[in-house]
Each structure stands twice: as structure tokens, then as C-alpha cells.
Design goal:
Layout lengths: L17 E5 L6 E6 L2 E4 H6 L20 H4 L3 H16 L9 E3 L3 E3 L8 E4 L3 H12 L14 E3 L5 E3 L4 E2 L2 E5 L10 E5 L3 E2 L2 E7 L18 E8 L2 E2 H7 L13 E3 L4 E2 H4 L3 E2 L19 E2 L1 E9 L2 E9 L7 H10 L9 E3 L14 H4 L7 E2 L5 E2 L7 E8 L7 E10 L5
Parallel strand pairs: 6-22, 8-16, 9-26
Antiparallel strand pairs: 1-2, 1-5, 2-3, 3-4, 6-7, 10-11, 12-15, 13-14, 13-22, 14-16, 14-17, 18-19, 20-21, 20-25, 23-24, 25-26
């Protein structure tokens, strides 16, 4: 199926950042995007268009990742954003051959990821998952006191479009006739997606320094869509008494465009209120969330079924609070680190962000538009996630995050 046209996501109000290469730009470098035009920022800097941004290091965009630029102070990002918007509003200012159509470029992983922590910030998700798996919707004991999470495997984060191979692992054989199900090793039988937002760390936080949530915008470069692929059977076998490991560590997809907090600023909104008194470092700003609508589509044999539509503002914890919680123990935050929000689920049946919730842990199948059914993902299923801030007319969207499930490697 041909990818939709996302030009409306990338108006001049957006100014996202990514990394791309092409036939004419063989080495990956930092880029931005206006509608369907990809703009190579190293070319613009070399031409002198950014000469007025004195704090911008020379050659900062002639890099294979955004890390060096993301680590700069927020004031530098804001100054460059204004220059870019002025340049892009005025025809004829861009250097020759500095732009290419989105269809002619290859998009790369936008940042070098040193650390990946995945949280579980949705009260709806933890209740739905608990009800489906344990017949108990009680949230984990600490849920209302701090954002719960686990450390994932940063090296398995891939850019949108990268195939995901069904993992082999250990799980309980539920087809066995014995009362006590044996643990076997083989291809996962319960593959799932998780619709999330990824928070990209910009300027780092040194070890033992700590961070207050109210100040954490200075340390967040922007957001991406994140699909935390999950092998539910492998995850279920290993999670007691510890957290997930191989059930999550085989692949995580992110969208290629980082949407900055400056682009999202007009869409700030309130989220759920704290239910207990928070530790001081977790106290957040008055409008801690963003009005971002997210969608999941499942594409099977070129037929698309919309399976979920949810809202980021339904999350109980914010990106600032996730950063503050990690730093509170003395951990450092490094430029390029990614913090996942956990599944973005809402209060209604149509707003559930993963198959575990939709099918009630595989008990009730999802019916697709062609009449076929899914308890969990089948080989060659393609999952597409999209997100738009403030509604379709805002001009600030994320594009897409896609991944296709491929068969497991032979044992």
C-alpha cells in the first residue's frame, strides 16, 4: 500500500528535524521539512543563511545524527527556528540543490540513542492490561506516586520502515494438555504493537544533579512516535518477578521526524490531575500535556483497518515528569536518550493502544475490514501509526511510524 501524503503535517508552523541522504547528498546529514520538501541544513549553513545565529557551531548539521544540535541550549534552537521560518517564507532564499522531494530521500534514525527507558504512563492501559491478564484492574502500587518504567535495549531502536522480525524466545506452551504448562523455546505466538510517544533528550543532565519536572523542557529536544513491539508470551513468561527483557528487546520503531516542543507549544493542555501529593521534583507545570491525536492502522494485503484512536492528553504522567523521575535517583540523562510514555490508551473501546487490550489478551479477536481476525499479529502484517497536534488543520503532525512483521528466523 502506498504511503499517504503527509505534506499537511509539515507546515511552516512545524519545522521538524531529521536525518536524510539521497543520490545528490550521499552522506546522511541533518534536515528539516516543509510540506513534501526536504531541506538539507548543512547546505543552508554553508551558504551563510545562519550567520546571525552566533551560538550555532560550525558544521553542526553536517553530521549523521542530530545529537550535537539537540545538545545545544534551547535559546539556540529557538533562534534558529525563527531564522528558518523567515527563510522558508521568502521565495528564492534557499541555495541551489539544497532541497529534494520527500520521495527521493532516505530517512535515517534521527539520533544516536545511548539509553532507552520505557514507562507506563496511561492509567487506562494498566487497568485494561491488568483486567485482561489477571482479572484485576488495580494499578501497580506506586502508579499514582511516580511514573513506573523499566530500562529497555537502546541498540534495537530502528527508524520507521525497518522490518521487524518475529523473535524466538521462551514462553508457556498454552496448547499443552497438561495442567502445568511447560516452558518451550520457539517463535513468539503473541506479537503485539504498543502505540507510544518517545521523548528525545536534548541538553543532558549530569549524574547526581537531579531535575525538577517544571524545568525539564530545557532538556527535552522533542517528540517522536514510538512503537514498542511486544512479544506478549515471552514477556509474560519472564516478567515474574522481574520486568520484561527479551519480550521487548528485539525491536522498537520510531518515526524519523523529531517534533520540537516549540512546534507543540500552541497545543499545551491540562492532563489528569495528580491523585496524591507528589514529591517536589515531580510537581509539574499548569498545562503539562499536549493535545495530540494518535492513530493505529493495521494493513493486511493492502487493506487498511483503523484499530485505535487515542489522545496523548489522557496520559497520567508527562515527559517532564519521566525525565525528573529518572534524574531523581542520581542517574544522568544523555543527549539522544529516548523515554517512551508506554501505551497511549483512552477510556473507550476504540482508543485502546495495543492488541493486548483490544483482544483482552487474545480472548476476543479483532475483526479486520476484509473479515479476517487477529488475536495477535500475523507474519507480513504492517502496523502504521500517525499523530497530529491540535487537529488536522494545525499543520503540526508527526508523519508516520510503520513496521512490517516478518517471519522468525529458522532455529
Amino acid at each position: 500500500m502506498t504511503s499517504p501524503d503527509y505534506s499537511s503535517h509539515f507546515s511552516i508552523a512545524n519545522i521538524p528535524f531529521g536525518v536524510a541522504s539521497s543520490k545528490n547528498h550521499s552522506d546522511p546529514q541533518c534536515v528539516t521539512r516543509l510540506e513534501n520538501q526536504v531541506i538539507f541544513l548543512a547546505d543552508l549553513q554553508q551558504s551563510g543563511l545562519f550567520a546571525g545565529v552566533n551560538s550555532l557551531p560550525r558544521g553542526v548539521f553536517n553530521k549523521e545524527t542530530l545529537n550535537e544540535y539537540a545538545a545545544l541550549p534551547k535559546s539556540t534552537h529557538q533562534e534558529l527556528r525563527k531564522v528558518l521560518q523567515e527563510v522558508l517564507r521568502t521565495p528564492g532564499q534557499l541555495p541551489e540543490n539544497s532541497t529534494e522531494d520527500i520521495g527521493t530521500v532516505t530517512l535515517h534514525l534521527p539520533v544516536s540513542v545511548g539509553g532507552f527507558t520505557d514507562f507506563s504512563c496511561s492509567l487506562h492501559h494498566v487497568r485494561n492490561a491488568g483486567r485482561a491478564i489477571l482479572n484485576d484492574e488495580s494499578p501497580p502500587p506506586g502508579f499514582f506516586n511516580f511514573p513506573i518504567g523499566y530500562n529497555g535495549r537502546a541498540s534495537t531502536i530502528v527508524v520507521s520502515g525497518t522490518p521487524i522480525v518475529r523473535p524466538n524466545g521462551h514462553f508457556f506452551d498454552k496448547t499443552a494438555t497438561s495442567e502445568k504448562k511447560p516452558i518451550i523455546y520457539g517463535p513468539s505466538r503473541a506479537m503485539d504493537w504498543e502505540l507510544e510517544v518517545g521523548v528525545i533528550v536534548g541538553q543532558g543532565v549530569p549524574r547526581l544533579q537531579g531535575l525538577n519536572a517544571k524545568d525539564a523542557d530545557e532538556n527535552i529536544f522533542g517528540f517522536v512516535i514510538l512503537n514498542d513491539w511486544s512479544a506478549r508470551d515471552i514477556q509474560g513468561c519472564e516478567m515474574v518477578p522481574l520486568g520484561p527483557l527479551n519480550g521487548k528487546a528485539f525491536g522498537t520503531s520510531i518515526s524519523p521526524w523529531v517534533i520540537t516542543l516549540d512546534a507543540l507549544s500552541p497545543f499545551k493542555t491540562v492532563g489528569p490531575k495528580a491523585e496524591v501529593a507528589l514529591a517536589s521534583h515531580l510537581e509539574d507545570v499548569a498545562e503539562p500535556s499536549y493535545a495530540i491525536d494518535m492513530k493505529v492502522e493495521l494493513i493486511v494485503r493492502d487493506q487498511m483497518t483503523t484499530v485505535s484512536e487515542s489522545k496523548v492528553q489522557d496520559l497520567h504522567w508527562s515527559g517532564r515528569q519521566m525525565c525528573a523521575h529518572l534524574a531523581s535517583i542520581g542517574a544522568d540523562l544523555q543527549t539522544g536518550d529516548i523515554l517512551g510514555t508506554g501505551t497511549v490508551s483512552g477510556p473507550n473501546e476504540g482508543s485502546l493502544g495495543c492488541l493486548l487490550e483490544i483482544t483482552k489478551a487474545g480472548k476476543e479477536p479483532l475483526t479486520l475490514i476484509d473479515g479476517s481476525k487477529r488475536h495477535f499479529l500475523q507474519d507480513w502484517d504492517l502496523v502504521r501509526m500517525t499523530a497530529v497536534a491540535g487537529g488536522p488543520a494545525s499543520g503540526v503532525g508527526f508523519g508516520e511510524c510503520v513496521g512490517q512483521l516478518q517471519p522468525a528466523k529458522e532455529l
